[in-house]
Amino acid sequence: MLKKNNVLIRKIIENCKKYPNKIIISDKKKSLTYTQLLSLAIKNSKKIKNLKSDYIPILIDRNVESVIAILAVVFSKKIFCPISNSFPDERINLFLNILKTKKLINCSNKKLNFVKEFRINLNLNNKSNVYNFKNLDDIFYLLFTSGTTGKPKGVKLSFKNILNTLLWSKEYLKWKNHKIGIATQFSFDISMFDLFSGLYFAVPMYIFDNPSNPLDSIKEIKKNKITSIFSVPTFFSNFVKYNLMKKNFSSLKRIISGGDFFYNKDILSWKFNNPKVDIFNVWGPTETSIVNTMYKVSNKDIKLLSNGKSIPVGRSHPLMKLKILKDKQFLKKNKVGEICMIGECVSKGYIGSSKNSKSYFKLDNQKAYLTGDLGYLDNQNYLHIIGRKDNTIKISGFRVDSLEVENLVNMNFKVTNSCLIKLDVSEINILCLVIESSKKLNFENILKYLKKKLPYYSIPKKIICLKKFPLNQNNKIDRNKIKMLANEK
Question: pTM to 2 decimals?
């Protein structure tokens, strides 16, 4: 019997009984009904259950096998840890060393000679019984942060964390007559929201085959009648970049953008070219269960966006409580500080060394996490994101809002994107504007325009042009690599 208090898994199994023949997950090559998916997961769980390690790494790919593997680990009462097959061997080996195992489930075509791997069995036979599960407070899965600098950290998420997120999301997202397009890798937390929203709310899901190619994605949206996509801004901005906004998005009802800044010009392009598509601007770190705030962009925001101003990412909610702190003291409205999440959304910390867990603490006798993101609450209690605490640009004692500079450039010049960074030139800190563009630009005109709009300390001393911005494994703009490239020029 299933433990009654694990309502997350119980709901998924109840959906299977209610909709046994409903196709719930598809990729380019195959589709599975609820019954097929859970039967394969339970069958494969028997082999996984005998493994000694509590943490089971899964080398994932864009396929239904990866989903079977994730659920198989859950049914084995162990903790799944998805790892992207796009990572280099050295990085995969680093993850395995952190997890203290040399065994993994391989759901990709990648060949590894330093591990013992096994494959998912896709042959269906007699139904298997579902057995006991862990409590809601136990660890559900482990995700490694992108780790662009230093050693990556494995974040431990509980069943209760993800359930809290799903219940909170019902306030904003309706799932009736929807189909989810999974655009991010299963090693990225957004995909966990997609996958478990689909399973929990009985929403069919389709895994994009090649989300980095916007032309392919448009064909998949149309063919599979996808209505809802949650991804990083670069996925949605690519349609703008390649002049595809007037293509057929007829089935699409909403896009949800999170994980990075969704630039104003690209939001406006979506609003003007596809006015029937709802746009949600969201925010939240992996450590606090994927996404913590959500804001639906409205027509009244168009003026703000057109003037290069920021729009909110949402409000605090009883299931997603947030405060703005400085030195762990509450700040008043419109004061910039570090965003702190409080309550059931806060994860169980990092695997391994406790020294990484200094951002986890108790606030008002509740679990709390200092996110490292800077922001403020406006007069209507809406949260605005300014940037990262560790990437705050300070020049001569002044704090520079990099997003304000980037929005001005993106809105008023023919550039794909821009990134403001701080460079050390001959032991002097200067602002450097890095522009993504394949065209020749007049840098003097850009500086002349910025001088009319910005205080003197926000004006970049140097401008560099790159044909294409580097992206990290989660398709976010890799500012560290951009800084390295800028230092070389």
Answer: 0.85
